[in-house]
Amino acid sequence: MRRPLLAALAAVLLLPGTTAVAAPRPEPVHQVDPLIGTAGDGNTYPGATAPFGMLAWSPTSTRGDQTSTGAANGYQYGVTRLRGFSLTHVNGAGCNPGAAGDVPIMPLTTAVTSSPSADSTDALYASDFGHAAESATPGRYRLALANGVSTDFAATERTTTGTFGFPADRPATLLFRTSNSLNGSADAQTHLDAAHRRVTGSVLTGAFCGRRANGGVNNRKSYYRLHFVAEFDQPVTGTGTWRDGALQPGGTDQTGGEGYATGRDRAGRGSGGYVSFAPGSRVTMRLAISYVSLEGAERNLRAEAHGSVDQVAAATERAWSTELGRVRISSPSTVFYTALYHSLQQPNLVSDVDGQYPGMDQKPHRVEPGQHAQYGNFSGWDQYRAQIQLLALLEPVVAGDFAQSLFNYAKQNDGVWDRWVHVNGATHVMTGDPSAATLATFYAMGVRGFDYRGAFDSLYRQATVPRPEGLLDAGCPGQCVGQRPNLAQYLASHYSANDACHCWGGAAETLEDSVADSALAKWAAALGYRDKAAELAARGGYWRNVVNPATGFAQARNLDGSWVTPFDPASDRGFAQGSSAAYTWMVPQDVTGLAEALGGKDKAITRLDEFFHDAQGNWLLRGGGPLRYDPTNEPDIHAPWMYNELGAPRKTQDTVRQILDTVYTTGPSGLPGNDDLGTMSAWYVFAALGIYPRTPGSAELLVAAPLFGSALIRPDHAAPIHITAAGTGRYVAGLSRNGVPVHDWKLPGDFLRGGGVLRFALSPSP
């Protein structure tokens, strides 16, 4: 529950002879509710984190199974029992468990009399809590547990500072579940130093989406070691360690991982340690993490962990105020600013204050000259459609560092750009080549803080030179190791053959690669590589080879050219996390061409109408089944904007506003589905501003009616953009750019790069 803002809620007192003065509009940071998206499938987390932070202090819940939280990121609003507060989280990942959740720390008010790992149902060393005792704001998280302990923590980029308030009549203990990352661990090390009031340790882990069947054993692997150091301001009165089922009271050192299995195959395994304090202690803990070394964690602690909890919280709130203040809207909106908050939680720092970071080759590296920081956590298949455009618009310096980070990882990975980078690990999740689409978009939007020629050359090589792992089925479906699977066949057939592609759905792979190649073509043209631009532009049209004229839908094909049958547009056969009906619209780079393939613009408009409505013409925007629009996943999130290019912009305006008004709301269930590292939130931010990225590799914008009367966008190191909307309604009656009338459904790329003023005139009727 968010704390009420006194400035926003206090009534205005009127004295004789005075006039009423409106209460000031709350600052953007005070309109954020981190609990939005924590119920249902939003998979957000409510804990304390800084913008793009490495560390996030947030609860790890339990449903009675120590090997599973029952939530993708450790927290589900409806689960009110927890077994600790973890140090790392990923926003909105779509599998259970998702990733990270490293080193849960549990405050206890009972004696530790048995191994916590043996408590496989979390019956002894966990606690209930109630949401009335919970407070989440940007950078700070507070929770009072049913066991009597109060917690209050704030985060910087790499550290957290907070207090545990223990009751006076019971034991006071902190349990460090060092091996208990969400997906398990290969190894863990814990060292307790009572004399110096310190706990240090590390966990060797990884295994993104480790419980998923697709990927299986291939995905249960280690690729990072997280180091931590914790210091306390109160004397440590006792210590102990455990490994698996054995408890060592008084112990100070322990090692041992849990493995990456689940359920019975993992229950009872693991290691950690505990420290005790005098009953009634109010313990302040300062903790830092590093992916490089314990020494790196020490340096991070000395550089960032300064001041009281209030002071740390205030500093991080100011950092969030800067980020959220890059977009100022004319009326308060918790939904908008929470969406912006979720959009800017990633990418996440992986480099220490001295610039060192772990490479994808598992070796330590240092950031490149001119690079400010190394970032990880790239949910490419999701983010390239909206989140990376918002990042490029608001934080082009961070976007440039992120682009360089991905290039650094590729160079350390034998030139391979992985689709889904978790911390510094290649997880291979999803399909296509989202790195190509992402970096091409960054360049088009004016981002220059990376080696863009070197990055282009590397991505072009990945798109044109087959590699041996492209012929493997390891990890398929879902996490196929080939990043351009069976590229030789793709280049020969001009589509990805469903029976020979070694991929997650031949039709999906073809559509994704067509988008990526179209984006690379635009980038090549901008760099002056005319031959490569022509080659890649032609490949950007390969989508045509998987749209069946006989069915009017995208459909997978076999190596011999035949269509995969039996065919059902509601089926996901040949696709990834979506049906044929949804994927058919995934041609943002050539909407006109797609309309021609579907029988002309009029027929395409009719098809889109049926996509968003039931047979009676009523809106069907959630739960309509595989033949209808799905706002919870990415393949069709561009579809509402496609009416613009089909000659029916009023229908884009109508559909977008209907989604804004009904699909995104306040409260824990306020997100339609997985936030997917800010992607769904970024969709909302753009739509509420009345603009949306037209296609990857471009800075062009599609337009609809803004939700607010005024919005001022002030990017970092870029020109401001002012959007105003006169009148009311969801339809655009007129539009001007810098005073010049606009008679089109899109804005050229130079608008985002150069800034200016957009003036909308709105109407309640088309």
Automatic annotation (TrEMBL):
<dbReference type="InterPro" id="IPR008928">
    <property type="entry name" value="6-hairpin_glycosidase_sf"/>
</dbReference>
<dbReference type="Pfam" id="PF07971">
    <property type="entry name" value="Glyco_hydro_92"/>
</dbReference>
<dbReference type="InterPro" id="IPR012939">
    <property type="entry name" value="Glyco_hydro_92"/>
</dbReference>
<keyword id="KW-0732">Signal</keyword>
<feature type="domain" description="Glycosyl hydrolase family 92 N-terminal">
    <location>
        <begin position="32"/>
        <end position="290"/>
    </location>
</feature>
<dbReference type="InterPro" id="IPR014718">
    <property type="entry name" value="GH-type_carb-bd"/>
</dbReference>
<dbReference type="InterPro" id="IPR005887">
    <property type="entry name" value="GH92_a_mannosidase_put"/>
</dbReference>
<feature type="domain" description="Glycosyl hydrolase family 92">
    <location>
        <begin position="296"/>
        <end position="763"/>
    </location>
</feature>
<dbReference type="InterPro" id="IPR041371">
    <property type="entry name" value="GH92_N"/>
</dbReference>
<dbReference type="InterPro" id="IPR050883">
    <property type="entry name" value="PNGase"/>
</dbReference>
<protein>
    <submittedName>
        <fullName>Alpha-1,2-mannosidase</fullName>
    </submittedName>
</protein>
<feature type="region of interest" description="Disordered">
    <location>
        <begin position="241"/>
        <end position="266"/>
    </location>
</feature>
<feature type="signal peptide">
    <location>
        <begin position="1"/>
        <end position="22"/>
    </location>
</feature>
<dbReference type="Pfam" id="PF17678">
    <property type="entry name" value="Glyco_hydro_92N"/>
</dbReference>
